[in-house]
Amino acid sequence: MSTTPVANSGLRYVILGGSTAAGKTDLAVRIAEGHGTEIVSADAFQVYDGLDLLSAKPSREQRKRVPHHLVGFVPLPQPYDAHQFGRHAREAIARANSAGKIPLVVGGTGFYLHALTSRLPELPAPDPELRSRLEAMAPEHLIKELHTLDPHGFNRIDLQNPRRVLRAVEVCRQTGKPFSSFAIVPESAPPSFVLVRSRAELRQRIDKRVEEMFAKGVVDEVASAGQAGPTASRMIGLYLICDLLAGRISVTECVRAIQQQTRQYARRQETWFRGKSYVPVSAEEAADVVGRALDNCHE
């Protein structure tokens, strides 16, 4: 895969976002198939080769019907981040545009979508020794240090996300500059939609999907997957299924815990999309609305 940067300027694409289990995959395949285009995945875990059930990848049949990009191409032990995604997504979109297609970008990883529609700052690579020391610190101490190192940007960091706090402190220490001084530069935004469902409906869909994952063999999948790297290991349910395999929890406890964690993740996704200029669409209207946006991009 090329590493040549591709700017957003001139790229034509449409985004369909939404929370996990909202039904983006099925809907996107139908839309893309009907409009003769391709899908670029914007999911932090579907990029990995392996754990197809746990990451809820599009099925092989769906990928045969519609070409999918950025699915299953990163080895499980390898780190992957938003910077890499932004570059790879722009390259995939540029190739589709060159072929006369307007791709549909589909996913729920907000920071990855942000990396595509904005230019992220160039941050230093993590320092393994410094990272190890920071990981050993209590979360409240990291938060206190972040307030000292970056008082002006402190309130803009999600303090409930330990990884974001740790990374911000790490960058402050590495550069001697406040983390907030590394600004994200917005670029031209494409037509962007978010698939919405009622809270009750989404909960039902999440619970059903987790149960189906177990029925299809997700436990065996995890058992044979091998070692996951620092990014892939954050996949919802991975550690819980490892606990199940080790006999520390029961199947029922594992299923319920994964359902709960997935519902919590979906709420965070909903919060992220509400704070952005995404047009909400229902499952009933999405095909027409998103389809028109794809057609308008050709004009």
Describe the structure.
- By secondary structure, the protein is an alpha/beta fold.
- The protein folds into two domains: 14-120 and 186-298, P-loop containing nucleotide triphosphate hydrolases (Rossmann fold); 128-183, no CATH class.
- 49% of the residues lie in helices and 10% in strands.
- It contains twelve helices and ten strands.
- The protein has a six-stranded parallel beta sheet with strand order 4-2-6-1-9-10, with helices on both faces. It has a two-stranded parallel sheet with strand order 3-5. The chain has a two-stranded antiparallel sheet with strand order 7-8.
- Helix 3 crosses helix 4 (110-117) and helix 5 packs across helix 7.
- It is globular and about 50 Å long.
- Residues 1-7 have low confidence and may be disordered.
Question: How would the blueprint of this fold be written?
Answer:
Layout: E1 14-18, H1 24-34, E2 39-41, E3 48-49, H2 60-65, E4 68-69, E5 74-75, H3 82-98, E6 104-107, H4 110-117, E7 118-119, H5 128-135, H6 139-149, H7 162-175, E8 185-186, E9 192-195, H8 199-216, H9 218-223, H10 238-245, H11 251-274, E10 279-281, H12 283-298
Parallel strand pairs: 1-6, 1-9, 2-4, 2-6, 3-5, 9-10
Antiparallel strand pairs: 7-8
Helix pairs in contact: 1-12, 3-4, 5-7, 6-7, 8-11, 10-11
